[in-house]
Automatic annotation (TrEMBL):
Domain of life, source organism: Eukaryota
Protein name per its UniProtKB record: glycogenin glucosyltransferase
Pathway linked to the protein: Glycan biosynthesis; glycogen biosynthesis
Stated role: Glycogenin participates in the glycogen biosynthetic process along with glycogen synthase and glycogen branching enzyme. It catalyzes the formation of a short alpha (1,4)-glucosyl chain covalently attached via a glucose 1-O-tyrosyl linkage to internal tyrosine residues and these chains act as primers for the elongation reaction catalyzed by glycogen synthase.
Keyword Transferase: yes
Species this protein is from: Stegastes partitus (bicolor damselfish)
Enzyme Commission (EC) number: 2.4.1.186
Composition bias type Basic and acidic residues, residue spans: 328-338
One BP annotation, GO: glycogen biosynthetic process
Length: 382
């Protein structure tokens, strides 16, 4: 889908031009069609800045669609770009194209000698190399990368006022930034340096976050303006590890990040009841906040599923939907995607629960659920 972007239309009159470049104002050579990508003037930011995400498979593609739609719903003025791995199915790419301005297939195997060489040295870092590819989007002057497992709750265009590399602290080790949301400047030179660095040093955590933190290694200390407030990358794990702070500041959250192994698309949704299924009995397997999870599914049901249904036509695909009161699954290929089954919750003693909590085994949706912790906290605060 082509989107008309007002930013493409130059709206400067001659007096404005004179103010911008008094010494060399020659309107005939003023680079109206090829603006200098390094200058952030309001007239051009819309078309030469972009939000970028990455989908390496069809599940992450669903996440990317929800993220893209959430950015659209909050009226972003920037372009939307989805990088997709070679394994993303054609109908998913079609659905992505109706939300994103640009859908670009990234195959690390064909992306130049440095990439190839780095991948040969570190074949385990294939997905990381795919993500680093965002630095090659040099037709944009500045971008904000967002993981496909993030969801935008309000307009965040102000992030483009930040410089490379701006990111929010990681909740697990706050001297590292979390690479789920970051501001960067596309540059082939930086891309090559990153690949070389990656091939030589690998990644201390096996993923892109390790590489990027080692490469941009002054983030923690050099420039506080590159520390994004936590509300731009709020992960559920932080909600549970510091609940009073969440109660105080949580309503300001602008971006939610579904960190962890279990992602929103691993659940299923009962549209008739408006309920997310498949999580209520999964104590240790999830850390997702139920309200944000429901928001994700509501957006998916309303805006993304219709696009997927159109793109897939009669071909079955895993919609994630369940029909209430019936075993029949709507457009769901149950053979390939069996519904997750979770063991029934076991009652544990208070002491045992404390030990589990301290060992990081938190029953987020059972005894240690948000509602239970909140109730306990309220009883202390009263
Ligand atoms: Mn993520």
């Amino acid at each position: 889908m082509t989107r008309k972007m007002w930013g493409l239309i130059p709206v400067l009159d001659c007096s404005q031009l004179l103010r911008l470049c008094p010494s060399q104002c020659k309107p005939s050579v003023w680079p109206i069609t090829t603006p200098d990508p390094r200058v952030d003037s309001p007239q051009r930011t819309m078309s030469d800045q972009a939000f970028v995400t990455l989908a390496t498979n069809d599940s992450y593609a669903k996440g990317a669609m929800v993220l893209g739609q959430s950015l659209r719903n909050h009226n972003t003025t920037r372009k939307l770009v989805a990088l997709v791995g070679p394994h993303v199915a054609e109908p998913c790419r079609d659905a992505l194209r109706s939300i994103f301005d640009e859908v670009r297939v990234v195959d690390v195997m064909d992306s130049g000698d440095t990439a190839h060489l780095a991948l040969m040295k570190r074949p385990d870092l294939g997905v990381t190399f795919t993500k680093l590819h965002c630095w090659t989007l040099t037709h944009y002057s500045k971008c904000v990368f967002m993981d496909a497992d993030t969801l935008v709750l309000s307009n965040i265009d102000e992030l483009f006022e930040r410089e490379e590399l701006s990111a929010a602290p990681d909740p697990g080790w706050p001297d590292c930034f979390n690479s789920g949301v970051f501001v960067f400047r596309p540059s082939n030179e930086t891309h090559e340096k990153l690949l070389t660095f990656c091939g030589e040093n690998g990644s201390f955590d096996g993923g892109d976050q390790g590489v990027l933190n080692s490469f941009f290694n002054t983030w923690a200390t050099a420039d506080i303006s590159k520390h994004l407030p936590f509300i731009y990358n709020l992960s559920s794990i932080a909600i549970y590890s510091y609940l009073p702070a969440f109660k105080q500041y949580g309503h300001d959250a602008k971006v939610v990040h579904f960190l962890g192994k279990v992602k929103p698309w691993n659940y299923s949704y009962d549209a008739q009841r408006g309920e997310v299924k498949g999580h209520s009995q999964s104590p240790d397997q999830t850390q997702l906040h139920p309200d944000y999870l429901l928001m994700w599914w509501q957006l998916y049901a309303k805006s993304v599923l219709p696009l997927l249904q159109k793109a897939f036509g009669d071909t079955p695909f895993n919609s994630g939907f369940v029909e209430a009161g019936s075993d029949e699954k709507l457009h769901e290929d149950v053979r390939e995607h069996p519904a997750p089954s979770f063991p029934p919750p076991q009652k544990v003693s208070s002491e045992e629960r404390k030990q589990r909590w301290e060992a990081g085994q938190i029953d987020y949706l059972g005894d240690d659920s948000f509602a239970n912790i909140e109730r306990k906290l309220d009883s202390f605060l009263k």
